[in-house]
Specification:
The chain is an alpha/beta fold. It has helices at residues 28-42, 57-69, 88-96, 113-121, and strands at 2-8, 50-53, 77-79, 104-109, 134-139, 153-158.
């Protein structure tokens, strides 16, 4: 069994119109939410073997905050360009290329693609992955190469405003 954690990046700063989309940083609420959600995930005692992130600053910053909570140096976060504004096939490709020895992977990316992909994985459907939300599933595979979107087990869906 393998575990996949999908995380939509935390709330970003929309103040600066001069910045490119990929350069937008987290705002104060985003940094706070990422810290809170990282701690909530840590409390579930799910060891994470591999961190994958979109190269967008807001996604990588979210991944770094989670990494810090899990004692993972930000240099160990693998940046994957295909995760920037990814559609479902890109998520599938990233997962099937994950190291076989990794039991749990966490992927930081963007909407709409991350919501669309989450909705393909189990019978549980969500309208939207809010910023800094986590959608977790368990896949009945021994090697990531065998991962498919069928037959997965829903574990949980969590987001900052869920109390």
């Amino acid at each position: 069994m393998k575990t996949i954690l999908l995380v939509r990046h935390a709330k970003s700063d929309r103040e600066s119109l001069s910045m490119s989309d990929s350069a937008r940083s987290l705002n104060e609420r985003g940094r706070k939410d990422a810290s809170v959600m990282a701690k909530r995930l840590l409390s579930k005692n799910i060891p994470i073997d591999v961190f994958f992130s979109s190269p967008a600053r807001r996604a990588y910053s979210t991944a770094s905050i989670f990494g810090e909570a899990f004692g993972v140096d930000s240099k160990k976060i693998t940046v994957i360009p295909e995760l920037y504004m990814a559609e479902p096939p890109a998520f599938h490709q990233v997962i099937t290329r994950a190291p076989a020895e990794a039991n749990t992977i966490i992927i930081f990316s963007h909407n709409q693609g991350i919501t669309d992909f989450a909705n393909m994985l189990t019978s549980v459907k969500i309208d939207n992955m809010p910023t800094c939300s986590i959608f977790a599933i368990e896949a009945a595979v021994d090697d990531w190469k065998g991962f498919t979107v069928k037959g997965n087990r829903f574990l949980f869906f969590d987001y900052p405003k869920l109390v």
